[in-house]
Design goal:
C-N_Hydrolase, 7 helices, Nitrilase/N-carbamoyl-D-aminoacid amidohydrolase, alpha/beta, hydrolase activity, hydrolase, Carbon-nitrogen family hydrolase, 15 strands, 6-stranded mixed beta sheet
Length: 264
């Protein structure tokens, strides 16, 4: 399986409409890949909180339309990163879209863990409530987004639902880049799964982005890592590696579930 992660640079001087066209062209250039992954909130920038409401769109809005055409033209499965979605009831969500090679909508994931504590995304957007996996011809994808990476129980749930490849678009800040790399490798090791973590470059609302998109194999080895700027990271994966790792080192079978806190 050939995967291409497009680490997009977000520049406030570039309009959403122009960036959408530019990214669609980048997707089309990945013809020959099997799966293409875009970052989190690449239309606005993950830290451009004041833009979320104005830029929010429905699931069938202009970003999905443009990315569906690009996926169909390239003949690829496209994880189109995430968009600020406005639900019909008016609620905003940080929503990821998975498109098939015909441009059809294969899966939707609304980010469960919203970043910001008492401001930004955490108070402006609703929380998703569903774990989402999607079967593609080579593997089963488990979908998560950025801050989700810090919550291992979410990924255990995805693995229990059959996930073999964890896809994580992000807008991760440079000042915590060490955590980005560490957590991506940890999620791969503990779940014996591939991790495809696609970040952004540039600066979002004054927040420098980490870049350094990364692909990790089920043993925790880094197969490829981008630099800090805009870049396309392409790597060939052997999906059979997941089953081989889980058979050779069957740690997942030794999980102890249902533990309760000590009585006081």
């Amino acid at each position: 399986m050939r995967a291409s992660l497009i680490q997009i640079a977000v520049d406030k001087g570039e309009s959403v409409e122009v960036r959408r066209l530019r990214v669609a062209a980048l997707v089309r250039e990945q013809a020959g890949a099997d799966l293409v992954v875009l970052p989190e909130l690449w239309t606005t920038g993950a830290f451009a909180f004041e833009s979320f409401g104005q830029a929010a769109e429905p699931l069938d809005g202009p970003t999905r339309e443009a990315m569906a055409k690009a996926a169909a033209d390239a003949g690829v499965w496209l994880h189109a990163g995430s968009i600020p979605e406005r639900d019909p009831d008016g609620t905003l969500y940080n929503t990821s879209l998975l498109l098939d090679p015909s441009g059809g909508l294969a899966a939707v994931y609304r980010k469960i863990h919203r970043f910001g504590f008492d401001r930004g995304e955490a108070v402006m957007m609703g929380a998703g409530g569903d774990l989402v996996t999607a079967r593609v011809p080579w593997t089963t994808l488990g979908l998560a987004t950025c801050y989700d990476l810090r919550f291992p129980e979410l990924f255990r749930g995805l693995v229990d639902a059959g996930a073999e490849t964890l896809v994580i678009p992000a807008g991760w800040p440079e000042r915590r880049r060490a955590h980005w790399t560490l957590l991506a490798r940890a999620r791969a090791v503990e779940n014996q799964a591939f991790v495809l973590a696609c970040g952004t470059a540039g600066t979002h609302a004054g927040v420098p982005q980490a870049g350094h998109s990364i692909v990790v194999d089920p043993w925790g080895e880094v197969l490829a890592e981008a630099g800090p700027g805009e870049e396309v990271l392409t790597v060939d994966l052997d999906p059979a590696r997941v089953a081989e790792t889980r058979e050779q080192f069957p740690a997942l079978k030794d999980r102890v579930l249902g533990l309760e806190p000590p009585r006081r």
